[in-house]
Amino acid sequence: xxxxxxxxxxxxxxxxxxxxxxxxxxxxxxxxxxxxxxxxxxxxxxxxxxxxxxxxxxxxxxxxxxxxxxxxxxxxxxxxxxxxxxxxxxxxxxxxxxxxxxxxxxxxxxxxxxxxxxxxxxxxxxxxxxxxxxxxxxxxxxxxxxxxxxxxxxxxxxxxxxxxxxxxxxxxxxxxxxxxxxxxxxxxxxxxxxxxxxxxxxxxxxxxxxxxxxxxxxxxxxxxxxxxxxxxxxxxxxxxxxxxxxxxxxxxxxxxxxxxxxxxxxxxxxxxxxxxxxxxxxxxxxxxxxxxxxxxxxxxxxxxxxxxxxxxxxxxxxxxxxxxxxxxxxxxxxxxxxxxxxxxxxxxxxxxxxxxxxxxxxxxxxxxxxxxxxxxxxxxxxxxxxxxxxxxxxxxxxxxxxxxxxxxxxxxxxxxxxxxxxxxxxxxxxxxxxxxxxxxxxxxxxxxxxxxxxxxxxxxxxxxxxxxxxxxxxxxxxxxxxxxxxxxxxxxxxxxxxxxxxxxxxxxxxxxxxxxxxx
Length: 519
Hints:
By secondary structure, the protein is α+β, with helices and mostly antiparallel strands. The protein has helices spanning 3-15, 32-37, 135-149, 181-193, 215-235, 289-295, 322-329, 347-352, 368-376, 391-410, 468-500; strands at residues 17-19, 39-40, 59-63, 93-97, 101-102, 108-109, 113-114, 120-121, 125-127, 158-159, 175-177, 196-197, 203-204, 453-455. The strands form six sheets. Strands 1-11-10 form a three-stranded antiparallel β-sheet. A three-stranded mixed β-sheet has the order 2-4-3. It has a two-stranded antiparallel sheet with strand order 5-6. Mean pLDDT is 87; it is low at 1-23, 463-473 and 497-519.
């Protein structure tokens, strides 16, 4: 056994890596046979022949469909990254569920549906402002997060090695790591933004499957739905809903950074979380991106230090305002070419925070989502580590609430989303990386109520955005007021003329003489 293999083995023992499997896929599919055959079609229940629930009409094992349209953006490599043509570097055949069935073995229902046959609409869960939760609701949310941080995910495991090392050093022992439910949530975000590994110290950085393009909104929406469902199952409460943080306060302080909510700053070291908060002992994963690139490996779920927020290190930043939200919602175009971080007058890019609603595009400009991450600083400031901070959950729920409000106001068709030439991962029909089983961006370009949840919030409306019926009513009322005013003015003038002896125009006798004739 070589020194590198020994080192990897020790690392594996330290982080819970299991022999014989690889990647962020269902544990049941992580056998050597499944990986060699590139097929993940597990049976539903105890009957081996009931593959994908086929015997009860829930699904079939089928070829994975991928988006073959050209992508744009800065990623110009081909066949160098395991996220290209997702997930075909790992599996060519997966369960294709019918109707409202879902899941890696078609054993679940799609979001928003319930019942043995997934044919009943589930009562929508309501996501509320974290500041308006009752003490019991607040404790349920915070306790669920902490429990998820300390509970191994029952179904999924994570990748620990580059895809070319899929089967491990000897070709028979591919590697995965067990991971907690919350750390799995963190790892998914890391994997979507990590660099392409071309060799020791040779990362290709111009790639991002969840930011800097149209998929920003749908990727994070699905990410939150996945966590919400995992937490519902963990605590046994199907009506549980993630709360949101309305960060559009315009203040220079974080009003959820308290010990009653998501942790205040520690007195002796303001970059750490107060010891009075349950989050003070949260350790983070996937923070050492440069080390992973140098070693040509992936985050393996090992803990790498404590959660940090460096509020002292801010550059006099303040949080976004309600006006920023209002201006963003006034943008009717979902996105504009080149569908990247330099798109202007783009709702998506303004919401993400690379652009402002007035078209301001500058490397120093940050707004809404991006500004909040920068404001929190510390662990939250970098995409690969940001999801470690539980504030990520409530921050992105509010971002999703803005997206949902835009969807309801403009009711866009699927054609609004670019079919091609968006950055890799961002075309409409691209399978979102690294979610499994495969799901496209288009499937989540919907209003939230179609996915089984809603928001208890009223977002600001500008004059330009007033609904058409309200505008029409205002115009009609205005015209009536003007007509009444004119009538009253004419009546007053008529009264004055009569008082002064003028003959009303209607009673004058006009001459029949032509203009050129003498009087």
